[in-house]
Amino acid sequence: MCENPSPARSNRPVPAGSTTEPPHAGFRSAQAEGAAASPAQPGPTLVGWPRQLAWSDFNDIQSRPSGESEDARISMGFRPGRLVYVQEGGEFRLGEVEFSMVLNAAGSWVVVSAKTTTLLAHEQGHFDIVGLCYRDLVAEIRTLRDRSRRRLILAVRRVMREHDQRAETLTREYDSQQQTNHGRDSVRQQAWESQIQACRQSGAPLTVPP
Labelling 185: which of 87, 95, 151, 163 has CA 20 to 30 A away? Predict the structure, then answer.
């Protein structure tokens, strides 16, 4: 199960008169795969994803919390770093800013007796679905230009909202009874894992596998 707080609600970069901004609340990640922009080109980057999860990323508990029907939960967040503006040809863009995808340790747990490679692979799927959406988010932010810093930040917020909503939609679909049924359907689980891997390699946006 995935708990994915909205970066659009909890991470709101705001315009200011200086060339840098203080950090805002959010996540942590690693160099994105398949991003549209070249890693050598200065600009926003994603850190904290991709990476392989391990059970050490989860808190061990003896039984499910009250009201829970699953044996594991992963919680993630998203945090933009210090905002740097670059002016080119009368337009502003964001400079070298790290957008971080991080695990929320307090909200990530697993029932000790339920630890299996299959369950960990399912939780990895949640992590990678969100990571792919944030990879695309950062790639789109790299393309944003505006003559007004205020309008540029409004555009950044819009892109964050759109990709956050996409991540939430895909994670819900991933767990649905028609898809993996929280990892219980091994055929659909494998289909999602293959789709995730293909999108990581190609740079294509993630979609529900056929």
Answer: 163
